[in-house]
Amino acid sequence: MSDKLTVHLDTARCSSYGVCVSILPDVFDTPPGSPTVVLVRESVDGDERDDLEEAVRACPAQAISIGLESQT
Ligand code: SF4
Fold first, then answer.
1. Residue 24 near ligand 1, beta carbon < 6 Å
2. Contact 38, 26 (CB under 8 A)
3. 69 pLDDT band (50/70/90 cuts)?
4. What tens digit of pLDDT does each residue of 8-59 get?
5. Does the Cβ of 17 fall within 6 Å of ligand 1?
6. Which CATH fold topology does 5-68 show?
7. Domain limits of the chain?
8. Residue 23 Cβ < 6 Å to ligand 1
């Protein structure tokens, strides 16, 4: 079972601390000149869930949330 999880990023909250980038660098990125991080992709596989949950907990601005894309 490998449910896809949707990643939500609230850019109005993000203060570009970059914690999420260090945890999941292939999901979050800080492009040069961007005031916030951006999503490289908007969904992650189930086996990346632990890292994504860690990023949610670690974000000082509580800018990251998780949605369930599909459940089979
Ligand atoms: S950890 Fe949160 S505040 Fe920091 S860059 Fe990521 S989303 Fe933005």
1. no
2. no
3. low
4. 999 999 999 999 999 999 999 999 999 999 999 999 999 999 999 999 999 9
5. yes
6. Alpha-Beta Plaits (3.30.70)
7. 5-68
8. no
